Amino acid sequence: MDFFAVEINLFVDTILDMVDRLGGKRSITFSSFSPEICILLSIKQSKYPVLFISKAGSVPTGDIRAGSLQQAMHFVKRWRLAGIVMLSDVFVPCPRLLRYAKRKGLVCGSYGNLNDDPACAKIQAEAGLDAIMVNKTIPYLSTASRKTHGLAGAAIATMPSAEDANLYEVNNSVINAGIPVCWLAIIALVARVLARRMVKYPLDASDYTLLLGWAFAWASCAGLFAGEA
């Protein structure tokens, strides 16, 4: 057995172990662009559904299983996977392909930039789409708007935008910088108070200023942590 097989086995086993220990009663679905990962997930467990993600030949690939919708369906049926997740560029221009996959008893999902357009999402939903992955949280959040756009029966997953990712990184940077400052302020305050006590000097205005600075730093860090939660 070559190293690649060992690596993906360890990779899948680690994921399954974590899900088994921490998954609880959550509704979980596995999905992957890798046919080998999908095969292992299907063989090693039967509790959670496994979906094969494919670009259906929209980009060159050396793996025939990812070369077309037909090949993806054949692969999924051969290994008894739950279904497929295809690039929306395949389903939107030709929704009958989606209906064809549904007639084969497959769970069908889609992803891609076209899903951010309500009109494109509605085309797929009317053809029987089971799950749609979008990049923006546009009008799909409320039940009413989902019905308006014809998505009442489709599961919707949202991906973080680039702006959200950048904001997350900025917040983490501020927190990481604020924690050392906060502790330095605490240490400085304690050292100053002890020094004053040793020489029996009363606290003066500078001590209270340092105390206020420490309180401000602590409040700032606490506020950032609350925002992260």
Any overview of this molecule?
With 229 residues, the protein is α/β, with parallel strands linked by helices. Helices cover 56% and strands 11% of the residues. It has 9 helices and 6 strands. A 6-stranded parallel sheet has the order 1-2-3-4-5-6. Residues 138-152 and 224-229 have low confidence and may be disordered.
Which residues sit in consecutive blocks of at least 5 with pLDDT less than 50? 138-152, 224-229
What's the helix-strand series? HEHEHEHHEHEHEHH
Shape: elongated
Helix content: 55-70%
| Number of DSSP-assigned strands | 6
Q: What attributes characterize this protein structure?
A:
229 residues; alpha/beta; 6-stranded parallel β-sheet; 9 helices; disordered C terminus
In short:
The chain is an alpha/beta fold and 229 residues long. Helices cover 56% and strands 11% of the residues. The chain has a six-stranded parallel beta sheet.
Helices, strands, pairings?
Layout: H1 3-22, E1 30-32, H2 35-44, E2 50-54, H3 69-78, E3 83-87, H4 88-91, H5 95-103, E4 107-111, H6 118-126, E5 131-134, H7 143-148, E6 155-158, H8 162-198, H9 205-228
Parallel strand pairs: 1-2, 2-3, 3-4, 4-5, 5-6
